[in-house]
Amino acid sequence: MRGDGIGRFLAIGAGQLVSVAGTGITGFVLGVWVFQVTGSATRFGLIMLLEAVAAIAVAPLAGMAADRVDRRAILLVSDVVAAAATAVLLTLVRQGELDVWHVYPIAAITAMCATFRVVAFTTVLPLLVPERHLGRANGLAQAQPAVQIAAPLAAGGLLAVVHLSGVVLIDLCTYAVALAITLLVGLPEKAVVPSRAGAPGEGALAELTGGLRELRRRPGLPHLLLLLGAFHLAAGMAGVLVQPLILTFTDPSTLGVLMFAGGAGMIAGSAVMTAWGGPDRRITGVRAFLAIAGIALALHSLAPSALLIGVLAPAFLFTLPIITGSAMSLLQTKVDPSALGRAMASARIAAQGGTAIGFAAAGPLADLVFGPMLQPDGALADTVGAVIGVGDGRGIALIFAGTGAALVALAAWATASPALRAVDDLPDLLTTDKREADARPTPG
Question: Which Gene3D superfamilies does this chain map to (predicted)?
Fold first, then answer.
């Protein structure tokens, strides 16, 4: 293995990637199970809502920990606790006692662990990778959510062979792989031991809000967080409703193929971002690909067609690594390294907050508002229904049209906002003397 920071980043990232793949397979199988048992988009969306709320609740603590505690320890403990929750799930499945309500607390616990892991990982990343490669590294990091989206195709085949208990057991084994890699890979001391580790405490409230205070000192960064929150709101609504939309006109096996196609699009976007690194002015990448994402999302509403979704879902998800990678690179270079963990936690709160609102609104809007309006005798049947059709799933399709239009409007705002246009011109704070790590890695 290479001895430089990039090699270590690749090794740690690979371990987390294996774990994310296992979790994605289990999450897909459980999600389909809940929807088939309940028949409710609201109950299905509640899983994702609880995950988002749990992530928001612990994000300030995760940021404070990343600026105060050994980050390798955060990665290890997060995986251990998530593995324990998965072991409980495996026990329930094997004993035949799994109920719908069991899924919710287990999902919340694993989401909390993921928040600690992501905040620690994104804080370590810019301290390992040379700044000229930061955009590429952030693009490569987006392979993790891409694999989680692509996992359903593997889930369908595994479910037929090893059944639900076997799928959960595989997920549990992936945590062991991630833990082994994190333990064995030597990381530079200054990447994993925060500069504030021995600093006097500021008080609990000041510690928790330190990331927001740091961001407010940098004009344009609060606008960037608002942009990320709004983007994740729209993407969250689409994410929670795409599976119910597809299941209204096809079966779970086709759903798995389409989810894999979407994940492949995101993997392609991650590969492009990794090779390219994004535009020199990173905010340009954010706003340009926001517009492309909005158009692709809106076109999902045209017809209940597996072929249509198979083309548009990968196109939409292709944009996500470029949007997120560009935004993360901006935050990582424009924030003081001593507050980087808390700033990354603030970004996580903005993203998960938008996602939580999207998740909370999506199910009720689909089940109670737009779904009935686009039934054959509904209020919109003769107007909007004449364009996108009526019947099951057409209310969800209308939500896709609305969220797509919102993303295009968001891109227009990012183009018009002076603060966002100038955010690339802020001085870089991740200077060589602050980010150069010890040549001696910490013990593995």
Answer: MFS general substrate transporter like domains
Q: Two tokens at 88? A: 């409980």
- What is d(CA 391, CA 191) in angstroms, rounded to the nearest whole number? 54
- Tens digit of each residue's pLDDT (9 = 90 or more) over 138-172: 887 877 776 666 665 566 667 667 777 888 888 88
317 within 8 A of 263, measured Cβ to Cβ: yes
Task: Domain 5-194+207-426: give its CATH superfamily.
Answer: MFS general substrate transporter like domains (1.20.1250.20)
With CA atoms as reference, report the closest residue to 56 among 346, 265, 399: 346
Domain definitions of the chain by residue range: 5-194+207-426
pTM across the whole model: 0.78
The position carrying tokens 């500021």 is: 202
Tell me the chain's radius of gyration from C-alpha atoms: 21
Give which of 402, 360, 361 is closest to 380, Cα–Cα: 402
Take residue 69 and report the two structure tokens written for it. Answer: 């505690």
Answer for the pair 237, 399: CB distance below 8 angstroms, yes or no: yes
Count CB-CB contacts under 10 A for residue 302.
Answer: 15
Backbone dihedral angles phi then psi of residue 134, each to the nearest 5 degrees: -65, -40
- Per residue in 71-99, pLDDT (tens digit) is 889 999 999 999 999 999 999 988 988 88
Label residue 214 by pLDDT band (50, 70, 90). Answer: confident
Least Cα distance to 89 among 164, 175, 199 occurs for 164
User: Positive or negative, the Cα torsion across 323, 326, 330, 332?
Assistant: positive
